[in-house]
Amino acid sequence: MDAEELLRRYAAGERFFSRVSLQGCNLSGVDLRGINFQDSGIGK
């Protein structure tokens, strides 16, 4: 998934992004309050 798709889906109200790969995405400075990256490997 690229950053544009993630932000589009987030803006549409989606908050649960299980097992997504955001490798290479720059999301610095983006407020993703309430987002859930369960089982995606983020933060490990």
From TrEMBL:
SUPFAM superfamilies assigned to the protein according to its UniProt record, in alphabetical order: Pentapeptide repeat-like (SSF141571)
InterPro entries for this protein: 5peptide_repeat
One Pfam family it belongs to: Pentapeptide
Gene3D superfamilies xref list: E3 ubiquitin-protein ligase SopA (2.160.20.80)
Protein name per its UniProtKB record: Pentapeptide repeat-containing protein
Domain of life where this protein originates: Bacteria
